[in-house]
Amino acid sequence: MKIVILGIAAGGGIPQWNCNCAGCKAARADGSLAGTQASIAVSGDGENWFLINASPDVRQQINETPQLHPESEEVRHSPIAGVILTNGEVDAVTGLLSLREGSPFTIYGHARVLSVLEDNSIFNVLHQERVPRERVQTGVPFDLMLQDGTRSGLTAEAFDVPGKPAWYLEGTPQGAETAAGDTIGLHIRERGSGAEFYFIAACGQITPELKQRIKGAPLVFFDGTLWQDDEMIAAGLSHKTGQRMGHVSISGEDGAMVGLKDLDIGQKLFIHINNSNPVLRPGTPQRRQMEEAGWRIPDPGEEIIL
């Protein structure tokens, strides 16, 4: 099984278009620190790929990733066989609108998230006869299917993690309260080899059930949005805490480094990292502390083989 990192940043990427925080200033001065919004691609055969979330930056990500380019002898072709949605946030679904040029693929999502697409007619640009939407149930593994209807050899299982509805749903009936399916994690597995990993790009609380689920996993991508809960308030960027946005912090007694230690996880990678988070900048004390705890931030374009 192969995984390619498409982007690691939280909503808005880094630098954000209207932000002048320390992280965005650094990214404008040094392009190597810039990043697109969080997404990965996974494949069982190295030829057919499934995206986890469709970032608003997906066109750029595809163009920068040779594995996702059309076959050279084809006029119209894409190796992307499907997109799996883990929530309904802008940075997870908006990229679907850039995949509208007629190539077939399947959108997989929980009913709560697919209802967001159904309620917004602009997503009908992806005609459902060519781009079907498959509802997934938590706790029920499902096959990821190729464009010709055959099995890819990969399975996925969705599971609920603490979170919240997409922020733009606040004030609407759907966003009135948190419900199962608003935020899911994914367990991706290859049938033949048994290779597996977990993808959890948003998580509001580290529960005993979550710890037990990912214990001993060879690879875990985990929510790295903020270093500390009041980070955006302290930087003058927002009035919301991380908890208010549905994200645990990296640091602190309730954070990911403490909460997920001693679980015998092979590779621990942070993804969905906000522009305000100092771990994005090499050499910061926070970056060193993160690395000393056994975590790292993957590089865009990096390929991981399991």
Explain the overall architecture:
The chain has nine helices and 14 strands. The N and C termini lie close together (5 Å). By secondary structure, the protein is α/β, with parallel strands linked by helices. The model has no long low-confidence stretch (mean pLDDT 95). Helix content is 17%, strand content 23%. A hairpin with a 5-residue loop joins strand 2 and strand 3. A seven-stranded mixed β-sheet has the order 6-5-4-3-2-1-14. Strands 7-8-9-10-11-12-13 form a seven-stranded mixed β-sheet.
Summarize the structure.
This protein is 17% helix and 23% strand.
Layout of helices and strands:
Layout lengths: L1 E6 L14 H8 L9 E5 L5 E4 L5 H6 L16 E5 L5 H4 L12 E5 H8 L14 E4 L5 E4 L5 E10 L23 E7 L5 E5 L7 H7 L4 E5 L7 H4 L7 H4 L10 H4 L7 E5 L13 H8 L2 E2 L6 E3 L1
Parallel strand pairs: 3-4, 4-5, 5-6, 10-11, 11-12, 12-13
Antiparallel strand pairs: 1-2, 1-14, 2-3, 7-8, 8-9, 9-10
Give the C-alpha Rg.
Answer: 18 Å
What would the principal axes of the Cα set say about the shape? globular
Strand order of the largest sheet: 6-5-4-3-2-1-14
Low-confidence stretches: none
Helices and strands, in order, run as EHEEHEHEHEEEEEHEHHHEHEE
Secondary structure: number of strands: 14
Structural class of the secondary elements?
alpha/beta
Mean pLDDT: 95
Residue fraction in strands: 15-25%
User: Helicity level, as a percent range?
Assistant: 10-25%
Largest sheet: 7 strands, mixed
Q: Helical segment tally? A: 9
Distance between the termini: 5 Å
